[in-house]
Write the structure tokens for this entry.
Amino acid sequence: MPAPISTFIDVNVNITGALADKFQFGAVLGAFAHNVNTDRQNGPFFNETEMNDAGFTVAATPAIRTWASDVFAQDDGVDFLLVGRRIPPTGGIIEQVWQVAAIGPVFVDETTDFNSVTTADWDVFPAGNAIGDYSAWGMPEKFSRLLMDNTSGTAGTVGVVDWEYWDGSAWSALVVVDGTSSFTAAVSSGQLVTWTPPLDWTLLSLNGETAQYYVRAVITTIFTIEPIYDVGTAAGDQTWTETLDEIETANSESWYITNIESRAAADTTEAANWTETRAKIYMGQSSDSDILSDGGGNIAETLNGLSLTRTALWYHALDAEYLDGAIGSSGGGLNLDAPGGVGIWGFRQLESITPDTVTGAQATNIYANAANLFGRNIGLSFTSEGTMAAGKPRFIDVTTTIDWVTKRIQEAVLELFVGTPTKIPYTNGGINLCVGAIQGVFDAGVTFGHFSPDTPPTITAPDINDVSSTNKQNRVLQLTANAVFAGAIQKIELTINLQF
């Protein structure tokens, strides 16, 4: 029998680089109100069949499916989408509701009864209630309101409850405004319990189930008549800022392009302001006719006045169509990490969207306030002009290139730090390692179409002898780089001189 190969040679493969996926610039998220589940993010979905299987059916969520259809319809569009959840203003389902007898303890799952519209089916506390028994409500993210209805139920009498939350080691007092009056309020709908989410509120697993953020109502004085309620909800999101904050908390890196369900000017402005402080872009849509006539105070004028560089507003007369989703998909489908993959958001042909018929004067008014249009000219339907709300020269692709180079350099440098077995020495050799990692991103940026090949990007690095002792002691390397956008030609001005 021959000797094993290890007698002659041992091969060990060590993976030292960072393994995290690179940020996906084509990821589109649509934020919609729904009660399919309590997840703030659903997906990724690669087709509508997957959405159907997840409960996002045409019957249950018609708006979401119309948006998804317009996203997926684009031949050159994104590969997948995500659905962000806005808890409906009228209220949303609760992930977990327990009725708990303190002695034992004995847990009864009341989630279905709490969320269902069946009347008088939710027994808030165990029969023959005792001091220490409680009802608990859990959600995967922190929440601040419960809305309850006992119109067809029974109001409790005499009983008193204390409200508490889990602080990581014990149940602590929760300061609430209790519209149920300890579940003794006269039978009615709209009994609201509100609180400010505590900073030390911590996930807790009850009865061995998935950990949630729980609040509970604990009996401190027993009820002579026990409360029976019809239904309850997690009271809805009051602002789009609240919605987008919670979606971001669930996974901030999962998407880049945002659409929201609402077309209201105030909601558009709120979403735009939220986006401006993040490395994301927002596609807004409006059918406001004042945009066409340049009527004062229209949403395009408002956004333009805010000089927003991360929001692109699209005029579209048909609210039932999701032009914002279609252009988000088409533009998001541009591969910023492929040779020649960088493109512009103007002159893009869209599927499933009706082009707007506007006059030359109306188009001029749209562009005057840096809004965009999907229209028709000389027999062709295409998008124009592809600017952010701040207007020229801040085209959408300028923002995406800024974000691309920022993200890719962060990733390259982090991979260098993590992948270096010992350390990067503060020497000319170490400085050159850092420069090389960053230069690699710039070189790719030229190949992909972000930066001009006519004036290649350069990095200026100090000689080790010129680095200050403070920077050496603090282990900080300061570099300077220069790059020129490749840009794009979107208009030709031609002068023709004819002679006899």
Summary: The chain has three domains: 28-87+240-397, 96-234, 424-500. Residues 90 and 236 are 6 Å apart (CA to CA). Residues 13-20 have pLDDT under 50 and may be disordered. Residues 28-87+240-397 form one domain.
